[in-house]
Design a protein that fits this description.
By secondary structure, the protein is of the alpha+beta class. It has a domain of 61 residues: OB fold (Dihydrolipoamide Acetyltransferase, E2P) (Beta Barrel), CATH 2.40.50. Helices cover 23% and strands 41% of the residues. The protein contains 1 helix and 5 strands. The longest helix is centred in the first third of the chain and has 22 residues. The radius of gyration is 25 Å and the shape is rod-shaped. The N and C termini lie far apart (72 Å).
């Protein structure tokens, strides 16, 4: 009898504890990323930073490794974070 009572009480309490832990967890907003094509419009040789302009007209500055030239087109992920929008994971676009 005691075993049946413990198993009946233990299962719902374990489930409720899981729901409580999920509900009180950190409320983080996940970043959304979309693919965009950008053109390299300027490169600062001193710092290695490149200015990229997307097809929508947005400008971003980021460090690009490799042999990039002004006029090259790259495909990047446009990440919408809460404080700012940024580009990441840029690859040559063909």
């Amino acid at each position: 009898m005691l075993r049946k009572y413990l198993s009946t009480a233990l299962l719902p309490s374990t489930l409720m504890l899981g729901f409580v832990l999920l509900a009180t967890g950190p409320n983080t907003v996940l970043a959304r990323a979309t693919g965009v094509v950008a053109t390299i419009t300027a490169i600062d040789n001193r710092t290695g930073a490149a200015t990229l302009t997307t097809e929508a007209g947005e400008e971003f500055t980021m460090d690009l490794s490799g042999k990039w030239k002004v006029g090259n087109r790259v495909e990047c992920e446009r990440v919408e974070d809460a404080p700012q929008v940024r580009l990441q994971h840029c690859q040559p676009w063909q």
